[in-house]
Amino acid sequence: MNIDPNKVKELILIYSELDEEYQKKLLGEAYKMQIMLSQKKQIQKEATKYKTEDELQKKIVKRSNKSEKGVLDLVKMLDEVSDTDKAAVFMMINRMARNSDTVQESDISITIN
After folding, report:
1. Among residues 22, 70, 96, 102, which one has the fewest Cβ atoms lying within 10 Å of its Cβ?
2. Cα 10 from Cα 1, distance rounded (Å)
3. Is this model's pTM higher than 0.90 or not?
């Protein structure tokens, strides 16, 4: 994956100018796109054929909405627990992910001046 440092800088500048309400909305949209990409990749691995690009997009949206609900439920739960409990949840997820073939360590490094 290629990351354009100028786009990253622009995104950070936009984010920093938003108030907390709009920062949450922006992150929410980013998570939605991430889920959609994940579902698209999964569908491609399944090698299911679709007659049109529109059918494929509808399937991606349908599966993403289902996944998104689970993610939103998790986010709501995390808003209600202590920082210690959040850390415990993320440690457990990290531990479980290490035993999975689907998680890869990233070699991305971002330095902001």
Report:
1. 102
2. 18
3. no
